[in-house]
Each structure stands twice: as structure tokens, then as C-alpha cells.
């Protein structure tokens, strides 16, 4: 396995990493690995951007679904022709 060293991390960022690690019951190093893994794993093949956004919004909104908007045909485009002879 490869090793990396990350320098010049803000104290506030380090504190937030420590808190997140404690909440997940792991070390700061393991929490950093988990964050990197989640950030860099490619989305599932065949999942469109719209589907991924929909899933993300369901997670954020708690699953609230909005009713679909009724669709209608657009009106005809103007012809700009002179009607008078």
C-alpha cells in the first residue's frame, strides 16, 4: 500500500476530521481514507447524472416527492407574414 503525507492542513479542518472520526468510531487516518475513497470512487456505470442528482436530492430532502408537472404542447410559432394584400 502507498503512503502519503499531507502538510499545511488548517487547524479547523483537522478538528473537523477528528470529530468526524470520533463520530464514526475510527482513527483520523481511517476517516481520511474513508473520505478519499468515497470522493474518488467513480459512480456506478450506467447511472446518469440526472439519476445521481435525483438520488442525492432524495437523501437531502428526506424522500419528499413532488407531483409531476402537467405537460402541454407548445403554441405554434408566429409566421410574421402580412395578412393584408
Q: What features would you describe in this structure?
A:
The structure is a single chain. The chain is mainly α. It has a domain at 11-40. Helix content is 47%, strand content 0%. It is built from three helices and no strands. The chain has helices spanning 11-24, 28-40, 49-61. Helix 1 (11-24) packs across helix 2 (28-40). It is elongated, with a radius of gyration of 25 Å. It starts with 10 loop residues before the first helix and ends in a 24-residue tail after the last helix. The model has no long low-confidence stretch (mean pLDDT 86).
Considering the chains and any ligands shown, give keywords for the structure.
about 80 residues, mainly alpha, 3 helices
Gist?
The protein is mainly α and 85 residues long.
What is the N-to-C order of secondary-structure elements (H for helix, E for strand)? HHH
- How large is the share of residues in beta strands? under 5%
The overall average pLDDT, rounded, is 86
Secondary-structure-based class equals mainly alpha
Report helical residue fraction. 40-55%
Number of strands: 0
Strand count, sense and barrel status of the largest sheet are: none
Coarse morphology: elongated
Query: Nearest-angstrom radius of gyration?
Result: 25 Å
Residue runs with pLDDT of under 50 for 5 or more positions = none
Number of helices: 3
Distance between the termini: 84 Å
Amino acid at each position: 500500500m502507498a503512503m502519503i503525507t499531507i502538510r499545511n492542513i488548517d487547524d479547523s479542518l483537522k478538528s473537523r476530521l477528528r470529530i468526524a472520526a470520533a463520530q464514526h468510531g475510527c482513527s483520523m487516518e481511517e476517516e481520511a481514507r474513508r473520505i478519499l475513497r468515497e470522493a474518488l470512487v467513480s459512480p456506478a456505470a450506467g447511472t446518469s447524472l440526472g439519476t445521481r442528482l435525483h438520488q442525492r436530492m432524495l437523501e437531502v430532502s428526506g424522500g419528499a416527492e413532488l407531483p409531476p408537472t402537467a405537460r402541454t404542447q407548445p403554441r405554434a410559432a408566429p409566421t410574421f407574414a402580412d395578412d393584408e394584400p
